[in-house]
Specification:
Chain A: The complex is composed of six subunits: RnfA, RnfB, RnfC, RnfD, RnfE and RnfG. The complex is a heterodimer of chains A (231) and B (305). Chain A has 231 residues and is mainly alpha-helical. In chain A, 63% of the residues lie in helices and 2% in strands. The longest helix of chain B is centred in the first third of the chain and has 24 residues. Classes of the chains: A mainly alpha (231), B mainly alpha (305).
């Protein structure tokens, strides 16, 4: 019994890493994923900031889930999320000015990041405080991992640097298109394909064709209990 | 005569035969680029063609798909890509261009017939965005008595200051990418394709006519605009790609008009000197809509309500 419980906690945490990876499998938060991943440092900063907001908002929303009236839950969620985003924005501005300048408008835009509102609606409003915190951590880690991977590929091949340091030898010219938006979409697409491939390797049959995969292949199916209506 | 609804006449043409005709039509321009830019031009054509075929083979092999290199379309893509590169380009950049054309633009979207845009155009644009300096490092042709490999602007940039003689433009003895300079060789190839009925003249003719008219209206010399830059190469060989051009005559005319207007808009009023490749990419993306809007009405078919 104890063991099973522990397993389920671990499963909630691990969910966000691959199986329900917010960027690559749920395809949420695509805007920051494409916009800030031109450099590893920015990716890491955005990932950590979003993870902080995700954990805090999940905890508070989960704690208040019984007092928030159903009809006004979305405005209530947004207000809570906006509060934490303001906190992180001020913290970053005070202690990490270069990151604040690099992320620009995308830092305050975490308020409308679909991952955070999505997890509030799908998970935190239905589960306990500890589970919600773990879910926020897992999802945040999955998001950060994806961003850092994309930033790594795009900065290394697109600019020849990592964390601003020259990595590629002078003879190797960077492929600048990878640092531009089309290159971002390309790297994003390749990573999505890899995530599906990894999921398939783990023995889960996923039909990548959205027309045929049905609820079984949908990473959101657990949250809607297979009722559909997601389209 | 307007042949419209089915049954259609069948003949023994095949993708392979059509592609072979295109390769034959490209030969004069290959030869011309060899004469104008020297052996390195021929080496580039060989490398991109071989790399394109190799990438197509490897992609099909690793994804366990039927190997399609026999239809020669990869060879055509490779040659056209080389035609869009300056002779000074490092070989690894040319090979990277083949990878983008074949794997990213063509195979990832489902192979020949499913590509959303002309693969060679996508390859060229990705390289132009990534290596802007190298992609415009045009070698000055090896004119007898002249200085070898002197970087110079294309006539499009140069004509803003001084005019090149029209004959020099027509024969191609000026700086530029491999395949675009010799108008005579390109026209020869174009005539062969039209005579062999591989391409319909509708697209090139509307495209070139639109450019000529808009040039006149904009106060530019139409003949210089027609003969310089990648216009002839684009109009004859790149815009007429079966997969990414409209089916019907009306569609082809709309497509040619759009190409001409966009090309002129970029040439005259944008910061970039040449607009042919962007015009073709943009119009490629519109082709499904043009096809939808210009679909023939079946004879005797009921009107759509």
């Amino acid at each position: 019994m104890e063991n099973e419980k522990k397993n389920s906690k671990l499963a909630i945490l691990a969910n966000g890493l691959l199986k329900e990876n917010p960027s690559l499998r749920l395809v949420l938060g695509t805007c920051p994923t494409l916009a800030v991943t031109t450099a590893v440092f920015n990716s890491l900063g955005m990932g950590v900031a979003a993870t902080f907001v995700l954990i805090c908002s999940n905890i508070v929303i989960s704690a208040c889930r019984k007092v928030i009236p159903d009809k006004v839950r979305i405005p209530a969620f947004i207000t809570i999320i906006a509060g934490f985003v303001t906190v992180i924005q001020m913290l970053v501005q005070a202690f990490a000015q270069p990151l604040y300048d690099a992320l620009g408008v995308y830092l305050p835009l975490i308020v409308v990041n679909c991952i955070i509102l999505g997890r509030a609606e799908m998970f935190a409003s239905k589960n306990g405080v500890l589970d919600s915190a773990l879910d926020g951590l897992g999802m945040g880690l999955g998001f950060t991992l994806t961003l850092v991977l994309m930033g790594f590929v795009r900065e290394l091949l697109g600019a020849g640097t990592l964390f601003g340091f020259q990595i590629l030898p002078a003879g190797m010219e960077p492929v600048a298109v990878l640092a531009s938006p089309p290159g971002g979409f390309f790297v994003f697409g390749v990573l999505m394909a890899l995530a599906i491939l990894l999921d398939q390797k783990r023995g889960k049959k996923v039909d990548a064709d959205p027309e045929k995969m049905g609820c079984a292949g949908c990473p959101n199916s657990k949250n809607c209990n297979g009722e559909g209506e997601c389209e | 005569m307007l042949v419209k609804a089915s049954p259609h006449i069948r003949d023994n043409s095949s993708t392979q035969r059509i592609m072979l005709d295109v390769i034959i039509a490209l030969c004069p321009a290959i030869l011309a680029s060899g004469i104008i830019f020297g052996w390195r031009a021929l080496l580039l054509v060989g490398v991109t063609a071989a790399a394109s075929v190799a990438f197509e083979y490897l992609y099909c092999y690793f994804l366990k798909k039927p190997i399609t290199i026999g239809d020669l379309s990869a060879v055509v893509t490779g040659i056209l890509l080389a035609f869009n590169l300056p002779a000074t380009i490092p070989l690894w950049i040319a090979i990277l261009g083949s990878f983008v054309s074949i794997v990213i633009a063509k195979q990832l979207f489902g192979g020949l017939g499913h590509n959303f845009a002309n693969p060679a155009i996508v390859g060229r644009i990705v390289l132009a965005v990534s290596f802007a300096g190298r992609m415009t490092a045009y070698a000055y042709p090896a004119v007898p008595g002249g200085v070898d490999a002197l970087a110079s602007a294309t006539p499009l940039v140069a004509t803003r200051h001084a005019d090149l003689p029209l004959l020099q433009l027509f024969l191609g003895a000026h700086g530029g990418v491999l395949g675009e300079t010799c108008a005579a060789a390109l026209l020869l190839g174009g005539i062969y394709l039209v005579v062999r009925r591989v391409i319909s003249p509708a697209i090139p003719v509307t495209y070139l006519a639109t450019v000529a008219i808009v040039s006149l209206l904009a106060g530019q010399e139409p003949l210089v605009q027609l003969l310089s830059g990648g216009l002839l190469l684009g109009a004859i060989f790149m815009a007429t790609d079966y997969v990414t051009s409209p089916y019907t005559l009306t569609g082809k005319i709309v497509y040619g008009l759009g190409l001409g207007v966009i090309t002129c808009a970029i040439r005259f009023w944008a910061s970039s000197a040449e607009g042919v490749s962007y015009a073709i990419l943009l119009m490629n993306l519109l082709v499904p809509y043009i096809n939808d809007l210009t679909r023939q009405k079946p004879l005797g078919g009921a009107k759509k309500k």
